Give the backbone structure.
Amino acid sequence: MKALVMGQRLVSRIEAVRDYLLSKGYNVSVIGLKSAFINKKRKPLVLVFSFYIIKVIFSVLVFRKRFDLCVGVSHFSGMIGVVLTKLGICKKSIYYCIDHYKGNGWLFTLQNAIDRWTVLHSDKVWDISYRIPEARSLNCELYNHKHSIVPVGYGPTFFRYNEDIDRYSIVFVGVMQKGHGLELMLEALPFLIKVFPKINMRIIGRGPFLDEFAGMVKERGLDKYYKLYGFIKDTNEMLDIVASSAAGIAVWNDIGNSYYGDSGKTKLYSVCGLPVIVSDFVIYSEVVTKCKAGIAIKGDKEALIGAVKKLFSDDNLYWEYKRNAKLAAQNYCSSHKIFSNVI
């Protein structure tokens, strides 16, 4: 069986699909798109996606294959998967929708039009959370028949549980953008240092906010409390750093479109055995709260300070949450469990 997987490269969604299909004996080809939001200077989206179309056409010609299955991760890749199916290059298309966008302007209108068309013409539709079909409001028999909820998951090689940790370290993994909790933690840190002098931050990732954030850290004289790793290419090295930390942070300043997705970094912390401090509107916060695998908070400085104090002041509570994080990961974050129900 031959499978084609398309989407943004170096993210958990496309890698999880690829690894699961490989484990089931598929011959997997991958076409990856570099994120349009990772660099400080963003290229126009029209240019990015035009290049992607050219890349897909070129890759398909190079592969010289017919595929039994095509999985398009995100709106644009899902749409291309449908086109390849209609051209006879793929037998069956699966649209894996990982985001929903609400807002005004032509870009939002276009994205949602692509989503609707792809939903109607794909053989199967995977939505990453139950909030996406609720927002889509597409109640037709054809859609309901082929639709499944397929949340973010990680393969077995990602799972870690380390008891030899830096008890006062907090880790952030992800694209460095404004409003993703970095500024909030920077504001909270001076207050936390007074209570926990050994507290430190580990920041893994790159993005348009990296240089500005590094300048903010230096300006406030907090250099010795921060380690900025940048992007770590070696996945095992990244996972080991995360697993040796005490807690993970996944906090957003406002709800925005993060409400509809399933945050990959939030689950990554659980997969690495870390209690997570997470915004209470994030869908995985429901699991975190139910399993006592971390603390769900509002997006303000006082709530963040309170959550850190709770985790760092009580050893018994901390280790209980850490054990629960491991169990939550096993039950809710295994890509093999998730995909076995839909493929």
